[in-house]
């Protein structure tokens, strides 16, 4: 007979432990003629490369990581530690493996958007190819092609693969590890098992514990399905554990061996150590939440925030539903149905092995993402996509075979398609005003396809049945395809911000989703793209408390501002900022001086979030006096944007959200005394530093108070021609003493400190 998984005729063998409704999944010896062209189309011509690379220069990158990649091209020490600046004051809040890969690319090809994103695109396409190969070896070419299609067209996967966040490389490494584990189990070979452990270890060095989520499924697969004796299985797993430990902790151990005085402060930690980062903010804090760097204090704790409230239904809510959940119902039905179809098949049955691996992968990621109490960005769910894709391909083909071979299963596949079609209509109707023709078309095609599947099931109507199944697959993928195409081909490409990339349209209210309906903001932070205190929640603008005025520039790589559109004269987060035409590769750029008077503000963060004006940068460079750092600001987003504008080292004193204890008065005195830092930006009202993140901890208050007491405030008129502030009598430096400037009506937030101020 000929089956969907095996297009070559063969004789079905029925054993005592395998019912006729579960035909053996023997991969074909010879690939059908259409298989390779279909894979090429998915990988390059039609889908993956186009969706990931088209109009890439118009997409917003994450300035936080862009700054670190640039720093790595200037300093090998910054490259190794993952420092935000080449002066190595503070690192990003992740291990540096993804930055290392992008940094090497930029060192060879030069710094720019395409040079930085080349490894990301390659990793995204390679992930599809590896998944296709793994599924093909279990379920055949049809299943592999479907799995590749589903993965390539998952909206959140397309969005994150067009961004420089580390998740693209993370998923590539985890899928590689899973595929190697499957090969090790199937072939009883140790080397692929050790390679799997190495991949998961590198995934750990990409995004810490997120790289371990699928490990229990891998261990379960090998322990359950390997034909090796128990003792040998345990020994092999112990050897793999050694490789896993080495590949996971080499960076943290090396960092801990470097004296604290000779290394940058590890961003995201409470004590400057890599171990605290692993166990705190980027570790268990993401799952269980907590104060400070553990979760709640780091943005969107309590399970809410960017992805909605924690709970098992989170993947289907208004924020995440359109990003990842389109085929979750089908994959669940395929998993359960596939396991039942395996019946009493031997534990070494390839189909069951595949279901254990990819079903475990999906279940583990789903439960952890759904119940996480700490920070939960929508793009984390891209890690769900490979499992969903494999189950849809492999499990779907098993349901099709059972549908054709056994009347008892004749209802399962049509029900699975029906549920998928209904859920697609629900998701599409959430996006009111966006492609309103699509949901009726999906409903009509799916209904006709299901009728065709039922009518043409029996008799000599194989081609009509194939056409009906193909139509159902098309209807299932139409919704996610429309979402996935929006980042590359949509008219609002700037709506996918680099810090929190998602696919259009926005349907989620509150934090992380933007306003309901089509065309919400794709910025890096809740609502329309502002950060506290310019946060937009539940579609409403709150009062902005930034020193820089209204947050019309958005966050790094994202628009923000009213209606989620790019600000006038402030393209994509501040003047000619992230996508400005003045910066190589579309990264960085100098903010518009009319929008950013005084060189700061305009970006909703204070501290130069929208980038510093060219006038201010020129002033700082002119009066730098050989300092190691051009400027010190409150947070990493501000520092990165100014750094990319000026191509000079800038200090982030408090890290990504302002909770890092990186800068103290004693450390500041030391830097100033050595002549390594002269200029600091602080808030002129209250004790905080620079508005936005960085203004809330006690250290920032202490530093701010000391700077105001001992520093000299730089008048805006010293560097801004458009300034209407009073002229200064100091033509050289344009300064007035900080101690006497409190009466000034237009006091600048920029201060200068010299060694004499310390003594």
Entry summary:
With 759 residues, the protein is mainly α. It has 26 helices and eight strands.
What does this structure look like?
The model is unreliable at 1-26, 291-304, 491-496, 509-610, 685-695 and 724-748 (pLDDT under 50). The protein is mainly α. It is 47% helix and 3% strand. It has helices at residues 35-45, 48-53, 63-74, 76-81, 97-109, 113-139, 141-152, 155-161, 167-187, 190-207, 215-225, 230-257, 274-279, 284-288, 321-324, 328-342, 350-371, 385-405, 412-430, 438-455, 462-489, 614-622, 636-646, 665-673, 698-710, 755-758, and strands at residues 536-537, 540-541, 631-633, 650-652, 679-681, 712-714, 735-737, 750-752. The radius of gyration is 28 Å and the shape is elongated. Strand 3, helix 23 and strand 4 (650-652) form a beta-alpha-beta unit. The protein has a four-stranded antiparallel β-sheet. Strands 1-2 form a two-stranded antiparallel ribbon. It has a two-stranded parallel sheet with strand order 3-4.
């Amino acid at each position: 007979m000929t089956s969907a998984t095996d297009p070559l005729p063969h004789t079905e063998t029925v054993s005592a432990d395998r019912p006729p409704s579960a035909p053996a999944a023997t991969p074909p010896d010879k690939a059908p003629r259409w298989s390779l062209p279909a894979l090429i189309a998915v990988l390059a011509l039609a889908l993956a490369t186009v969706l990931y690379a088209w109009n890439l220069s118009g997409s917003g990158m994450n300035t936080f990581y862009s700054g670190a990649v640039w720093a790595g091209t200037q300093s090998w020490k910054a490259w190794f530690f993952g420092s935000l600046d080449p002066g190595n004051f503070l690192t990003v809040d992740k291990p540096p493996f993804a930055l290392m890969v992008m940094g090497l690319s930029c060192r060879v090809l030069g710094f720019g958007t395409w040079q930085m994103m080349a490894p990301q695109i390659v990793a995204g396409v390679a992930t599809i190819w590896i998944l296709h190969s793994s599924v093909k070896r279990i379920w055949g070419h049809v299943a592999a092609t479907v799995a590749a299609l589903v993965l390539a067209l998952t909206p959140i996967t397309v969005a994150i693969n067009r961004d420089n966040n580390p998740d693209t490389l993370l998923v590539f490494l985890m899928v590689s590890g899973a595929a190697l584990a499957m090969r090790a189990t199937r072939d009883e070979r140790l080397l692929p098992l050790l390679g799997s452990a190495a991949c998961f270890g590198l995934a750990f060095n990409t995004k810490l514990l997120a790289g371990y989520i699928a490990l229990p499924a891998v261990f379960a697969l090998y322990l359950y399905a390997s034909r090796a004796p128990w003792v040998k299985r345990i020994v092999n797993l112990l050897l793999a554990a050694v490789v896993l430990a080495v590949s996971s902790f080499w960076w943290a151990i090396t960092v801990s061996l470097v004296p604290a005085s000779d290394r940058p402060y590890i961003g995201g930690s409470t004590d400057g150590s890599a171990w605290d980062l692993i166990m705190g903010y980027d570790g268990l804090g993401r799952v269980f939440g907590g104060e400070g760097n553990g979760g709640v204090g780091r943005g969107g704790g309590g399970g809410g925030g960017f992805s909605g409230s924690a709970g098992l239904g989170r993947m289907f809510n208004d924020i995440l539903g359109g990003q990842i959940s389109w085929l979750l119902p089908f994959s669940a039905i395929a998993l359960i149905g596939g396991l039942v179809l395996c019946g009493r098949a031997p534990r070494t049955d390839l189909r069951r092995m595949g279901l254990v691996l990819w079903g475990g992968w999906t279940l583990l990621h789903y439960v952890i993402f759904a119940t996480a109490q700490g920070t939960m960005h929508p793009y984390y769910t891209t890690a769900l996509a490979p499992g969903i894709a494999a189950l849809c391909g492999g499990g779907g083909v098993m349901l099709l075979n059972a549908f054709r071979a056994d009347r008892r299963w004749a209802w399962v596949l049509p029900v699975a398609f029906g549920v998928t079609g209904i859920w697609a209509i629900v998701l599409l109707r959430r996006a009111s005003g966006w492609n309103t023709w699509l949901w009726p078309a999906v409903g009509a095609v799916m209904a006709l396809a299901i009728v065709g599947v039922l009518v043409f099931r029996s008799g000599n109507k194989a081609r009509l049945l194939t056409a009906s199944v193909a139509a159902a697959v098309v209807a299932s993928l139409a919704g996610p395809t429309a979402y996935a195409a929006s980042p590359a081909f949509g008219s609002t490409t700037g709506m996918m911000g680099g810090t929190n990339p998602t696919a259009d349209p926005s349907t989620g209210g509150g934090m992380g989703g933007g306003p309901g309906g089509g065309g919400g903001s794709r910025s890096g932070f809740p609502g329309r793209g502002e950060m506290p205190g310019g946060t937009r929640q539940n579609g409403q603008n709150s009062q902005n408390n930034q020193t820089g005025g209204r947050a019309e520039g958005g966050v790094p790589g994202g628009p923000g501002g009213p209606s989620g559109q790019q600000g006038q004269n402030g393209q994509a987060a501040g003047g000619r900022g992230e996508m400005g035409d003045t910066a190589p590769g579309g990264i960085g750029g100098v903010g518009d001086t009319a929008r950013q008077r005084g060189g700061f503000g305009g970006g909703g963060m204070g501290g130069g979030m929208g980038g510093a004006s060219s006038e201010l940068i020129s002033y700082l460079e002119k009066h730098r006096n050989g300092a190691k750092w051009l400027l010190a600001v409150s947070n990493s987003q501000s520092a990165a944007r100014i750094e990319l504008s000026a191509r000079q080292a800038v200090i982030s004193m408090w890290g990504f959200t302002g909770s890092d204890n990186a800068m103290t008065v004693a450390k500041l005195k030391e830097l100033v005394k050595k002549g390594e830092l002269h200029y600091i930006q602080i808030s002129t009202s209250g004790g905080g530093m620079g508005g936005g993140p960085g203004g809330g901890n006690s250290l920032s208050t202490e530093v701010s108070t000391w700077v105001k007491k001992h520093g000299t405030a730089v008048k805006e008129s010293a560097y801004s021609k458009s300034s209407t502030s009073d002229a200064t009598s100091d033509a050289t430096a344009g300064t007035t003493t900080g101690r006497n400037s409190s009466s000034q009506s237009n006091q600048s937030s920029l201060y200068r400190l010299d060694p004499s101020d310390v003594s």
